[in-house]
Design a protein that fits this description.
- The chain is α+β, with helices and mostly antiparallel strands.
- It has one domain: 60s Ribosomal Protein L30, Chain: A.
- The chain contains two helices and six strands, in the order βββαβαββ.
- A hairpin with a 2-residue loop joins strand 2 and strand 3.
- Helix 1 runs parallel beside helix 2.
- It starts with a strand and ends in a 5-residue tail after the last strand.
Length: 132
């Protein structure tokens, strides 16, 4: 079986910092790479506050999803990575504000370190639609 994989990029999200695509489409599903709070213009981590970092990571994720012609409403599952699980409430508040009433499946994992010393990273599995 030869699966067709289509890379997804967005000039509105931060560029990859390694050898990977921000997203890959297989069939009717988008799999995103982890997104951290890198500003897409400066490629610097938003470190003013954890909220700023989380919101930038969510912005980057949203732009990758939009580039694949889908939306946060079609997110099936997310995986959150935090370097300090005691900050979960801050992350959860930002996440809830973005996803509103939509409740995708979610895992949350504490890790010792993330790229660029980010404190938060998010990846998603998304159903593709014709509506952004």
């Amino acid at each position: 079986m030869n699966a067709i994989l289509t890379p997804i990029t967005s000039n509105k999200a931060a560029s990859p910092i390694g050898h990977y695509s921000p997203g890959i489409v297989h069939g009717t599903t988008l799999y995103t790479s982890g997104q951290i709070g890198l500003d897409p213009v400066t490629l610097q981590l938003k470190q003013d506050t954890l909220e700023a970092e989380v919101n930038q990571a969510l912005d980057n994720l949203t732009e990758v999803i939009h580039a694949a012609k889908s939306s946060l409403l079609h997110v099936i599952k997310t995986t959150l990575y935090l370097t300090d699980l005691s900050q979960f409430d801050i992350v959860n508040t930002c996440y809830q504000q973005r996803f509103n009433e939509h409740l995708p499946a979610r895992s949350c994992i504490e890790v010792s370190r993330l790229p660029r010393d980010a404190r938060f990273e998010i990846e998603a599995i998304v159903a593709l639609t014709d509506q952004p």
